[in-house]
Design brief:
By secondary structure, the protein is α/β, with parallel strands linked by helices. The protein has helices spanning about 15-25, 40-50, 65-80, 105-130, 145, 150-170, 195-205, 215-225, and strands at about 5-10, 30-35, 55-60, 85-90, 135-140, 175-185, 235. The model has no long low-confidence stretch (mean pLDDT about 95).
Amino acid sequence: MRDPRVIMITGATGGLGRAMAHRFGRAGCRIVVHYHRNKEAAAKLADDLERLGAESMPFQADVRSLTEMKSMTEAALKRWDRLDVLIANAAVRKDALLLRTTEEAWDSTLDTNLTGVWNSLKAVGEPFIRQREGRVVAVGSVAGVHGRAGQSNYAASKAGLTGLIRSIAIEWAPHHIQLNIVFPGLQPTGMTVALSSEQQQTLDRQNLLGHAPPITEVAEFVYFLSKMTGVSGQIFNLDSRIV
């Protein structure tokens, strides 16, 4: 049976975003392929989804802009007359020790990783409440729980994300809207290519199994979570680093 839901994935052209888009696409979902700068990658992903038999709509927007996120939501509603799931995946990393972290690196990381999700929630909130139904899955990080040297901006943004999602889960529960967070582990994506082999080995040693889950398993879990009817305000750590 095909899954006709409308799914909005921010940062859809990144490694994890693509994996999740493909999983929802195989189910037959209609997908808003959000991108910021990489128009070519968004077009290719949309073509891939069409070949899977899924409708898709590439849309350029800056998650740091509430106006642009509202425009993307309105475009989805105009085309499909509803929106069922927001996957808040867009994020950046600009690592440096605190005294070497620039104001720009701090601001842009918090603006994208935290304010960007706030903007996304503001954009989808009204249609979700009108429908009295909606799902949000936000991509978090173990760094937001433990902290990590050289990632004060990234860790702060992901720690703030936890507070944001759990607070809105409480606010929107009476409207039957569910919000949850997933920690995907260290995935081989554009977010991690800058890690040195030493950093990679250190992070792997922290993992009880010595490796993160395959990216396809993360995508499968997110798809499953997006269909659950009785779970909200929770963190799901898919990694084997204990939090």
